[in-house]
Design goal:
The complex is a heterodimer. In chain A, the strands form four sheets. Chain A has a seven-stranded antiparallel beta sheet with strand order 15-12-14-13-17-18-16, sandwiched between helices. Chain A has a five-stranded antiparallel beta sheet with strand order 5-6-10-8-9. Chain A folds into four domains: 8-103, 2-Layer Sandwich (Uridine Diphospho-n-acetylenolpyruvylglucosamine Reductase, domain 2); 111-225, Uridine Diphospho-n-acetylenolpyruvylglucosamine Reductase, domain 3 (2-Layer Sandwich), CATH 3.30.465.10; 230-336, Alpha-Beta Plaits (2-Layer Sandwich); 343-416, Alpha-Beta Plaits. By secondary structure, chain A is an alpha+beta fold. Helix content of chain A is 38%, strand content 18%. By secondary structure, chain B is α+β, with helices and mostly antiparallel strands. Chain B folds into three domains: 6-172, 2-Layer Sandwich (Uridine Diphospho-n-acetylenolpyruvylglucosamine Reductase, domain 3), CATH 3.30.465; 176-265, Alpha-Beta Plaits; 268-344, Alpha-Beta Plaits (2-Layer Sandwich), CATH 3.30.70. Helices cover 28% and strands 25% of the residues of chain B. Chain B has helices at residues 6-14, 65-74, 87-90, 98-103, 111-114, 149-153, 187-198, 228-241, 254-265, 287-292, 321-325, 339-344, 353-366; strands spanning 20-23, 37-40, 47-51, 56-60, 77-78, 121-128, 133-137, 161-169, 171-172, 176-183, 204-210, 219-226, 248-251, 276-282, 301-305, 310-315, 330-336. A five-stranded antiparallel beta sheet of chain B has the order 3-4-8-6-7. In chain B, strands 11-12-10-13 form a four-stranded antiparallel beta sheet, with helices on both faces. A four-stranded antiparallel beta sheet of chain B has the order 15-16-14-17, with no helix packed on it. Classes of the chains: A alpha+beta, B alpha+beta. At the A-B interface, helix 9, helix 10, helix 12 and helix 18 of A face strand 7, helix 6, strand 9, helix 7 and helix 8 of B.
Chain lengths: 477, 378
Amino acid sequence: MQMPSPRASVLARRRTIISRLQGVLPEGSVIHDEFELRAYECDALTMYGCPPLAVVLPGTTEEVAEVLKACGEEGVPVVPRGSGTSLSGGALPTADCVVLGVSRMNRVLETDYANRFIRVQTGRTNLSVTGAVENRGYFYAPDPSSQLACAIAGNIAMNSGGAHCLKYGVTTNNLLGAKIVLMNGEILELGGAHLDAGGLDFLGVVCGSEGQLGVVTEATLRILRKPEGARPILMGFEANEVAGACVSDIIRAGILPAAIEFMDRKCIRACESFVGAGYPDVEALLIIEVEGSPEEIDEQLALITRVAEKHRPSEIRESGSDEETQRIWAGRKAAFGAMGVINDYMCLDGTIPVSELPVVLKRIGELSNEFGLEVANVFHAGDGNLHPLILFDANDEDQLGKCEAMGAEILKLCVDVGGCLSGEHGIGVEKRDLMPFQYSADDIEAQIRIKDAFDPNWLLNPAKVFPLSATASRREA
Amino acid sequence: MNPASESELAETVASATGPFAVIGGGTRRFGSMPDSERLSTRRLDGIRIYEPGALTLVASAGTPAEDVAALLAENGQRLAFEPMDYRAILGTAGTPTIGGIAATNSSGPRRIQAGACRDNMLGIRFVNGEGKILKNGGRVMKNVTGYDLVRLLAGSHGTLGILTEVAFKVLPMPESAASLAIRRLDSVSAVKSLSAALGSPFGVSGAAHLPGWKGEEASTIIRIEGFGESVKYRAGKLRDLLRGYGDIDVEFDQERVDATWRSIRDAERFSASVGDIWRISVKPSDAPGIVEKAAGLERADAMFDWGGGLVWMLVPEGTPLRDLLGDFSGHATLVRASPETSSRVRTFQPLPPAHAGIASALRRQFDPRGILNPGLMC
């Protein structure tokens, strides 16, 4: 993985730049101590790291605007950062950049139950958005596994999903408005408490743009009333392909569960020993959750069970209590952490048409044999978003290389069957160079030109998303 | 011009010297289109991929919406965002197409539950103003591979590119549906009752208010859909919840429920009237106040959808409605107007200067020669 070399002209003016930033921000908002900068050298893609020139932690939108204006005038690249939980290196710094962290901006600005929205500063964590409205029976739907830590800013940058987006959609479907600061310091309001912003859908293109178009400081989010109840059912199968076929049949039967999650044996065992979720020891496990009143839940689960029985599951078990439901979900959400306890791994994030699940799972098994690296599978089966975890020894250079090559093969496979390189983690630096597998040079150029319109000098998170060769002329201009 | 294929369309655009008025079936043209040559996608016709088990359908832009609806219905599925048919109020003939629906981000009453058209679009192919064939997104439910041009092109009215193919997420058709109606509410109480229904856990998929008009009493209507027993259960729960707003009738007859919501979707109430028609997106609780501002006008009428979030207004021809409304959180589109009104009143809500600057920068990037629907959305 390559990053552009730092601009010597910026490094040479380090002191000037830092004092200019100190001039526009309150005391204690600029971090430049070599030791403290280490905390910002990487995000959750920990295999790559580089301390930035400085870190700023503004407290208001106006301060963000001042920082961007100053950096724009000084020609300093800016890497926006939420909570630093990106799995694709979206917040990875370069030595010549200023990291702009929004973590201090975490307030709730407005809750409006009559119109069903909440307006927050984007440093607020995903789970604490729900936390602010749940005493009134509401919730914010997108629920990435990292929801305890990840910030709304990062959710918007990566258009994050989660386990329940089969029913509720991803971030872009739940984002009504945003306040965004452009690299020239201009502050724009996009959308608001009404549906479908007027004019071209800037909000739609900003969401998922990985912090390359502007810094989003405030978000208006749709909140929903919690369903009367929810209950998961666990189903074990003796083959991955059979579980895959079962998912497709459930959807065809006209049922839309709130979530359909898949785990293979390796993952099941890791989660079991990590949190004791009560999962059966089977080759493939489906966790299917439906919502409604107790009677509605019974009706849907009966229908799902009828469909599933044709696939001869080795085990079917409904959650018997709220406590058991929580344990089942705690296991799933801890899957990445649980795997991390037993091994180093690389987490992939491709998406495929659900109908291709059996073929793709089989091929991943073959690739695992070819490369001699084990793979554990855990993913959102209802929407085809795969998270194969390739297990490897991070201290072994040879294994790291093999792991990267195998990851690329799996993602190419996703594209070949009609899917895409990333379902919810984003491209960042991790999949930058794979973009040409999914998109032609013209397709990539069309995206690059959007950045030209928002950030003509290419200073915002410039080394992400696109292959470096495709953006070199703009970054070096 | 009626190119027969995507590549022919691309060549047509690449070799063009003058501007085009881009159309699909030509049923939802609103706003003043410049007097330029028509470029239609109508012949790009055909459903490319339909996978009921994956809830996805991919169709060429010129595919009639009714063909798509029919194939989906055979498999117990549908486009959940309920695209509107503009023919009733615009008096247009022709066939609504998939491309037209996507290019105008056309969403009906179920937008409050299933999202807008743009939320149900998974991928697109399009031809930009230079005649290049481009694609974005795909045919999977989740996709954050690069920038989201799907959302950007949805509702761009052909100003950034000409859609040639659209991939949609489709959803199961529910087993049954019911409508609850409360009579004689004023619009403030009506929006409050709709808000209470939408803030309940009972899965409301339609929330509209039709004020009293031409001798008919006001009617506030709520839709629920799903499996039979569940619909009955939720209808009972909603009735209890909304008891304080008045007597509530519940309609379980599927055909009548469908007819009611089709008429709300297509704003049929206004189809036989004379006047300008506006479509206004607002914060729901602001809606009654917005309508009140036009109360002094003769022969004016209004209806509320999306729990108040969408206001349809009929006003006398040439009314400068935006001036009457003043500043509000939302935007107003002049959907039907006489040519005389269109020449004076802008179709789309004018953008603040910073937004307008980015919009024109984007248009220059996608269409450097300014040949795609110039003048539209400006």
